[in-house]
Amino acid sequence: MQIDVTPVFKNSDNVVEFDYMADLSAISLTYGERPAEQPLRVAGRVFAEYGAVSLSLTVCGTLYFVCDRCTERYTHPIEAVFSVMLSQDTDVEESEAVLVVPEGWLDVDRTAHLALIDALPDKYLCCADCKGLCPVCGIDRNVATCVCEKQ
Predict the structure, then answer these.
(1) How far apart are CA 111 and CA 90, in angstroms?
(2) Angular region, 96: left φ>0, alpha ψ -120 to 50, beta rest
(3) Angle at 101 between CA 96 and CA 106, to 5 degrees
């Protein structure tokens, strides 16, 4: 979704708000997994404050992962909060703090994608105390106990 944010740059009293369901299923992880199987809610606003134009955005929904320890599929609720300053100046270098919108059009889907990637967990675990798989027989230790020798 593209939105025109030039009204906020022209008049600091203007605010541009958005709230929609975004298809972010194209997001791919390290091994090709695609956690966003269903559309996610993207809501936010572009506003001026203290002479700077800012974007505040939230991505909410459910993601689907495979546990790194037991390889079971699980759901993970997500609420990714993202804020950044906007600039129309093409001489400004884009960074984590500044997003350049030279034509005045903001690609909200791309920004939601960045917010979601930033909010992903470092390790995908179905639960904090997941016991994983036995390295000898491969049994899921969350479900059953094996008789393999432990070294």
Answers:
(1) 18
(2) alpha
(3) 95
| C-beta separation of 32 from 43 below 8 A | no
Number of residues in the chain? 151
Q: What is the pTM of this model?
A: 0.82
Checking DSSP bridges between strand 73-87 and strand 98-100, what pairing results, if any? parallel
Question: Contact 57/44 with Cβ under 8 angstroms?
Answer: yes
- Each residue's pLDDT, cut to its tens digit, for the chain (151 residues) gives 999 998 888 888 889 999 999 998 888 877 778 888 899 999 999 999 887 899 999 999 999 999 999 999 999 999 999 999 998 887 877 777 888 888 889 999 999 988 988 888 889 999 999 999 998 888 999 999 888 876 6
Residue 37 CB neighbour total at 10 angstroms: 13
Domains of the chain, by residue range, sit at 2-119
Beta-carbon neighbour count of residue 83 at 10 Å? 12
Q: Residue 94 gets which letter from DSSP?
A: P
